Amino acid sequence: MKVFKFGGASVNTTERIKNVGAIIDKYKDGQLLIVISAMGKTTNALEKVVEAFFNNKKEEALQLFEQVKQQHLSTAKYLLVTHYIACEDRLKSFFTEVEWLLHDKPVREFDYYYDQVVCIGELLSTTIVSFFLNETGIKNKWVDVRDIFRTDDNFRDANVDWEYTQQKVTTEILPLIKSTGIVLTQGFIGSTDENESTTLGREGSDYTADIFANMLDAESQTIWKDVEGVMNADPKLYKEAQLISELNYNEVIEMAYYGAQVIHPKTIKPLENKRIPFYVKCFLDPNLPGTVIKKQALKNLPPIIVFKEKQVMIQMKSKDFSFVGEKPVGQLYHLFEEMNIKPNLTQNGAITFTCVLDDRPDKIEKLALEASAVFDVEVAKGLTMLTIRHYNKEVFEKLTEGKTILLRQQTPDTIQLLLGQ
Ligand code: ASP
Ligand code: MG
Question: Residues of the chain whose pLDDT is less than 70?
Fold first, then answer.
């Protein structure tokens, strides 16, 4: 049994949905669990709907939602003939769920509404693709993953209840795959024991697919993307980016930790635990070999380059020039935890504590304000953090030429630099 995950870019046009069909067709005689994301930028569009709703702009929310509706209906209409009416019915029942909510007034927290609205993106896309595959002779069963994935009510970043979910996977999904061959479902979403929808964090579909692979003891998992495989740098930011054809779990966890947009950071563990090989393949050209991530020793990895833009450096100096001791630093970490802030880099000097964070203006302001009770605080914005794993002199010089290095941290494996404009 294999697990496949197709991202939003693989289903963002009718041509691409047909292409996904052509890929699945090659595997249709085997057993497959397929996870598909929301189409293209649907999740972003739905985020706008919730924002408008939460700001009491009901008309705007409904109007923005109308665009999402029309786009899905026209995709379905274009792709389907005999199954169109049945598909439209299903889509409309999801639309109604959201519209009911949009007609209310917000009385609960934003994150709750976010999940109730945003989860619809994956439900719509998988509905369309499932009907399309069935119409073209690729028999599959559509499953609402919210009936399978039980989570807590930490909306927008919900935690999966492994025990409950495993039991559902074993008793419902496994027999379904055995009897029908292909099961098609959503990633990224789940539900609480009170049937409220939840989401697992942006880009969370990979995580869902990994959990399925783990729980189904899959022989492999494949993520189909619009790139050749895992690259050693973002080709948009580094011209000489190259494909890495073999990786292991640890290296990928490190890459994700430093911000490479490879794989959702928490995703790799469920695969590593069961040593399930993980493929990253290109849906635009399925014949390309892609990347395989599995348990193996690696040699000759190229330097792995990660740029993180929009970084903010906060420098905190102790007001009385006393050493920055455990107590104030402890207080700061307490604040980080409270505000759910994960510094990308920290550095401790005699009287200065420096940290680098993603630019989340709401959080930065609050943090700076609270810290200013104990420290003199300085904030610098618009910086770039560069991480190079397996660095060498040549690549270091090339990437830092003409740049101001504001901070530097180095181990034998990894160098991190904070660069000014
Ligand atoms: N649709 C969600 C997102 O765009 C989840 C995913 O695609 O992984 O973040
Ligand atoms: Mg995606």
Answer: 265, 323
Residue 328 has a pLDDT of 82
29 and 101 in contact (C-beta within 8 Å)?
no
Partners of 335 in beta bridges: none
Q: Rounded to whole angstroms, how far apart are CA atoms 1 and 217?
A: 8
Cα 271 from Cα 213, distance rounded (Å): 7
Other CB atoms within 10 Å distance of the CB of residue 377: 16
**What confidence tens digit (pLDDT) does each residue in 204-256 have?**
999 999 999 999 999 999 999 999 999 999 988 899 999 999 999 999 988 98
What DSSP string describes 264-315? Answer: -GGGHHHHHHHT--EEEEETT-TTS--EEE-S----SPPPEEEEEEEEEEEE
Domains of the chain plus CATH, in order, are 2-225 (3.40.1160.10), 304-419 (3.30.2130.10)
Which residues surround ligand 1 with Cβ inside 6 Å? 7-8, 37-38, 43, 121, 187-188, 202-205
Cα–Cα distance measured from residue 75 to residue 69, given in angstroms and rounded to the nearest whole number? 10
Q: What pTM did the predictor assign?
A: 0.86
Nearest CA to ligand 1 atom 6: 203
Q: What pLDDT does 265 receive?
A: 65
CA of 207 to the centre of ligand 2 (A): 11
DSSP single-letter state for residue 350? S
Helix, strand, coil shares, percent, the chain, to 5: 45, 25, 35
- Three-state DSSP class for 99? helix
Instruction: Count CB atoms within 10 A of the CB of residue 348.
Output: 12
**Residue 43 alpha carbon to ligand 1 centre in Å:** 7
Q: Read off the pLDDT of residues 25-37 as tens digits, 9 standing for 90 and up.
A: 999 999 999 999 9
Angstrom distance (rounded) from CA 34 to CA 28: 11
Q: Give the closest residue (by CA) to ligand 1 atom 5.
A: 203
Given this model, what pLDDT does residue 216 score? Answer: 98
Cα of 260 to ligand 1 centre, how many Å? Answer: 16
Q: Give the mutation target among 6, 34, 37 for probing the ligand 1 site: most ligand atoms within 8 A of CB.
A: 37
The type of residue at 224 is: W
Distance CA 113, CA 103 (A): 12
Residues 6+ apart with CB under 8 A from 72: 39, 91, 124, 125, 128
Predicted pLDDT at 47: 98
Å from CA of 315 to ligand 2 middle: 35
